[in-house]
Amino acid sequence: MLLLPTQKRFYCNNLNQTSRFITREVRIGDLLLGGNQPIRVQSMTTTDTMDTAATVEQSIRMIEAGCELVRITAPSVNEARNLENIKNELRKRGYQTPLVADIHFTPNAAELAARIVEKIRINPGNYADKKKFETIDYTEAAYNEELERIRERFTPLVKICKEHGTAMRIGTNHGSLSDRILSRYGDTPHGMVESAMEFLRICQDENYHDIVLSMKASNTQVMVQAYRLLVATMIQYNMNYPLHLGVTEAGDGEDGRIKSAVGIGTLLEDGLGDTIRVSLTEDPEFEIPVAKTLVERYSSRKKIAAHSIPEKLSLPYSPYDYERRETDTVINIGGKNVPRVIADYSHKENITPASLFQIGYTYHVNTDKWTLSDQACDFIYTGDKILDFEIPGTLGVIVNSAAYALSNTKDRYYPLFCADEYFRASAKSSVLNFVAIDHSSIFNNPAFDLGKLDATVVLIVDTMAENGMAEQRSIFCELMKRNCSIPVIIKRNYIGVNPEQLQLFSATDLGGLLLDGFGDGIWIKAPSATSESKMNSIGFGILQATRTRISKTEYISCPSCGRTLFDLQDTTAKIRSRTDHLKGIKIGIMGCIVNGPGEMADADYGYVGTGAGKITLYKGREVVKRNIEEQLAVDELVQLIREYGDWVEKPL
Question: Phi-psi bin for 94: left (phi > 0), alpha (psi -120 to 50), beta?
Answer without folding.
Answer: left
